[in-house]
Amino acid sequence: MKQAFLQLHLAILLASCSGIFGNLISLDPVLITGYRMLLASVMLLLLLVIKYGRIVVDKSNRHILWLGVLLAFHWVFFYGSIKYANVSVGVVCFCLSGFFTALISPLVNRKRISWVELLLSSLTLAGILLIFHFDASFRTGIVLGIISSLLFALYATLNERVNQSGQVIKTTALQMVGGTLAMGLLLPFYRASKSSLSLLPTSEDFVFLFLLALGCTVCMCLLLNRAQKVISAFTVSLSFNLEPVYSILLAVLLFDEDKMLGTAFYMGLALIVLSLVLQMVYQKFSSQ
């Protein structure tokens, strides 16, 4: 059990590095997403071939490819939020996905809306609105971050049923392929609107992209897959609330982002942390 929890928290730490690498890589958000998914899909497909000898894909897997497209656009807006603001703002906006999930999940799964969950997660919305109102320099980044969190909420809701199959590695590989194809089709139109767009990464960018794909996607997926064999899905979901905390701490340590953030940000962050804590407490008691 101790090893499983260690694997889980290492997976969370790797996931929290996604925004850090996004800030370090000089490429455009579309290119960051495209290269990340391309490299990750190659790694995961090779892993599947080595492990099983072949990869079986049929018509029932088409919806998994579409989920990869949704994930890709989530990442595009997430990295866009970081580029226009900073890692801390991008990650804080990502916390809003809980609020959107509380609205989207009941509609998709045809269940009643949990007004308690909606109320608790609305504290996150209040925190982001507070930052948006007082920190005008972050507004574009916040808008992109809100769109990113909405897309992730939709992705997470639809992906919940797919993960129940237990084939996490194959599912992730197919989603990476779907996202890679989407970014490849988008790129010619995107480049036409940005003639000065640099397509090829520098050697430094490639190292960061490789680490992003290997660590934040492949290794994170493998660690999470192993941890979920021992730890309940509820505990995993609850533990991932630590991801934004890890990301902000890393951003402060690596980029001195605490010097860029004003009082409004910390007031908004306090509301968001309060929302996460209350949601964790509520989920813990409601599951008993």
UniProtKB/TrEMBL annotation:
Coiled coil: none annotated. Residues 9-132, 140-278 form the EamA domain. Pfam families: EamA. This is DMT family transporter. The lineage of its organism: Bacteria, Pseudomonadati, Bacteroidota, Bacteroidia, Bacteroidales. The chain crosses the membrane at residues 35-52, 64-82, 88-108, 115-132, 138-156, 168-186, 206-224, 231-255, 261-282. It comes from the Bacteria. Keywords: Membrane, Transmembrane, Transmembrane helix. It comes from Parabacteroides absconsus.
